[in-house]
Predict the structure of DUF2628 domain-containing protein.
Amino acid sequence: MNIYAIYINSTQKNNNFIVIEEGFSWIAALLSIFWALYHKMWLVVAIVVIANIIVTAINIEELKFIFKIALILGFGFFASDIRENYLKRNNYRLEDIIIANSSIEAELKFLARSMLI
């Protein structure tokens, strides 16, 4: 069982919602910049690219290695938090927290709860 956070943008007419799985994200850890690009988090991409340029310019191999490991672990552990912060800055609000086996099951539970309210 996983924990899923449901975010909704009340300013949109169609009330689309976004399901975010809490916990470690292997996809974000391994594909950090591409993961951020996919989710249109331009500020995160810019910060990571600038940090990469600075670390490469310093040209200390040990520092490069430590930075890469920190980047992998940082994105892996904090991917859901980074995405949730980004959504909150874009007028989304936390609507529900659901425990489910998959994101599809979480969506179905959320829709079932929404119909009862």
In short: The chain has a mean pLDDT of 91.
